[in-house]
């Protein structure tokens, strides 16, 4: 429909198309503006920020806020923790989810309906925050790197998404491999995984994004500040800065303020997301549909 | 097709003259079982980690849900604590705070549904009318972006932008002569800010489903409409929208099924005692009572209530969806 | 087919496949000789693919016994049966190039690298794939993909080839070409082959022996010509041959001159058959192949009045679509380069010795001579 020649349009259509474009443009700007605002704020002087004069571009441009953020060892520490949680956590997820989804997709699996229901049921009913937390405590996984990595390694949605993709692979691929002498491990590794690159990329990216952004459980489960990820550090810093009026007062005269420091931390933690975003975008269209409504 | 007597050396077979029909013997069944195990054991090895994970991390907590009916003591443990029946539920339903949380959950969900649900549909319809591919791609890339930003950062941005002295929102208001408002301490402002943030963050991303649905519309419908002299506006209303109606209905049912699932992570980041009145939902109530207050049994009871209501809603939604479109949600 | 009894390469004894209570294969007995090319043919759902998959080991055998080279293989894994299969959709791995696809099974079996290279080169040469070894399946034509699929089967030098409708994804012209190629390949390699298809033309052209199946059972086994000339029942008669055998419902009437089939006030002289003695008034089905009908009077033939509906010209031959009463009747006639003389036809001549008679109740052929083997 978009391929049609614009010249063929009536005047009404042309107006409609133009108005629509303007509206989309406005919405896009609205989506983008908060990021621009934060970026501008992070490069502004503390005085300008506190006075509320920053709107679009930095006022009294300075990198003082970044100096404050980047010289804090806790910032780097939490950054490294997030890196670790993201990489190790994603690997752990794939290690459990890919084989699990494969097994659930195999027609010869005895009790296949039962196992699938067991996985799917957790999407509709979950025990909730408190029993989960008590369970983590009983397992000795409070305040533990491993607890964060294993405790959130799997979710039913990802397994089902990948299982659906595996099921859509014609059975002759597995059968041909079986006749060629491949065992189930080999069929998975040499046939299904290469055939499912888009789906696996999708859940990998879901995992990465979830891990990078994960905040609530990290905040609850981790008490040792040396183990917290970036998001929790960010939260602590924002809360500290805004709650501690005395501290805030000492900042007033400085080149940075509560707002500019917060903005600088935000910018620093968004940058990795922006870097992987183009790759994410390539896949999530497919991904969200893969796991969406199943006939 | 006569009998083939000389086929198959009998020495190789355990049963030289197998009865071809009739019930298999015990040893035949065992042989078949062994064959299947030899063929398929690896599948179970592959399945095991996932199943064990589900048992330990999701099903074991369901067993722990019994503390909702117990006077939970850390020393006695989940199994050892004494039963108290429905005492916690009585406490909950006698508690203004809990009832307020239930009310807030439903109200926030309902308002989000009312404003948040149409937004991605409108956005998708509008994206579909854009002719310049580069403009469309760029705009889509930008409006999808907020979905990938963590709630902590979003909350950080909101707190900064709405702050009374430095925030840009109050800067705008000062331009038109309005005194600064400390938005995040005002109960009446919490919901608009929360719901607006939700739309800003998710509308773009959610539009993908509808765009995909639009892409599936048979192009010949548009071509024949053009021949009939329809305007683009008319085509949008008369062709596109009816064509994606099934998707809209399914997504609506899913949303209604998830009405108890308010994104409480964001609420925890944005609310403060001054706004509990309108902001406190069941999950934030559980968080405060249980994790922060240590009243595990009471909080677990609230969680069970939430989960049961949610489960009922989802099941109902799926039943309706099946009847409506012969499409199950899973 | 005499050797088949002495040295069967594959033998099926009362093979049954059940899914729950549903029997999809209801007792198949079949011996396939070494180097023989056997085609299982039948309408969809007749159990031919299931039978093939049981030979492959992809389906468990519910009942009966399966032997490959004198070894009972009911409970032998597919990979240990020494059989190779060509699938309908080829099942080529898109992430591997042609060489990788052909070598897949060898790699899995840990065959030494040098040996793999030698085998792949050899197979590629046989199939004319040498220039394409580095290409991915996506960059190949349908025929080339088909060849790669065959290469993957050939490379392991199996005892038995299994083909599951391998040509059904190709267009008509390519299908004819690949059919010939499969035939040539079989001649060259001489490996026992079992081939499943629903296309009777493929069956006729490829098979040493055809197995016609319907509803989970074997209807008839025989060489293509046996099936064509001597169908065991109306099902086989109508399934084999293109266009299929004409069938007319009739009633037997005998007099001094012999037996006749009476229908709609007309009659066809029937050949002398044991079953027709004293069969007056019995309902029968009269079968006549379109290519056996004459349009001019000949010796020992019955003239039948027909109404001509239309003529399909095939070139040297034409199909006359006619009807007798309500029953359609197709005649294949030579054109001699012109169809004008065909357009006025109202009488056809059915040679008595070509007439097949089937029982009206059981649909079984009268005077059926069971072929050896």
TrEMBL record, chain A:
Keywords: Cell membrane, Membrane, Transmembrane, Transmembrane helix, Transport. It is found in: Cell membrane. It is a multi-pass membrane protein. The chain crosses the membrane at residues 21-40, 83-102, 114-133, 145-166, 187-212, 261-280. Residues 79-277 form the ABC transmembrane type-1 domain. It comes from the Bacteria. Pfam families: BPD_transp_1. GO terms for biological process: transmembrane transport. The keyword Flavoprotein does not apply. The keyword Transmembrane helix applies. One of its GO terms (cellular component) is plasma membrane. Belongs to the binding-protein-dependent transport system permease family. This is Putative aldouronate transport system permease protein. It comes from Reinekea marinisedimentorum.
UniProtKB/TrEMBL annotation, chain B:
Belongs to the binding-protein-dependent transport system permease family. Residues 8-22 have a biased composition (Polar residues). CDD domains: TM_PBP2. Coiled coil: none annotated. This is Putative aldouronate transport system permease protein. Residues 1-22 are annotated as: Disordered. GO terms for cellular component: plasma membrane. InterPro entries: MetI-like, MetI-like_sf, UgpAE/MalFG_permease. Its main location: membrane. The chain crosses the membrane at residues 41-59, 108-131, 143-162, 192-215, 235-254, 298-320. It is found in: Cell membrane. Residues 102-317 form the ABC transmembrane type-1 domain. It comes from Reinekea marinisedimentorum. It is a multi-pass membrane protein. Keywords: Cell membrane, Membrane, Transmembrane, Transmembrane helix, Transport. It comes from the Bacteria. GO terms for biological process: transmembrane transport.
Automatic annotation (TrEMBL), chain C:
Residues 10-240 form the ABC transporter domain. One of its GO terms (molecular function) is ATP hydrolysis activity. The keyword Ribonucleoprotein does not apply. InterPro entries: AAA+_ATPase, ABC_transporter-like_ATP-bd, ABC_transporter-like_CS, ABC_transpr_MalK-like, ABC_transpr_MalK/UgpC-like, Mo/tungstate-bd_C_term_dom, NA-bd_OB-fold, OB_MalK-like. Keywords: ATP-binding, Nucleotide-binding, Sugar transport, Transport. SMART domains: AAA. Transmembrane segments: none annotated. This is Multiple sugar transport system ATP-binding protein. It comes from Reinekea marinisedimentorum.
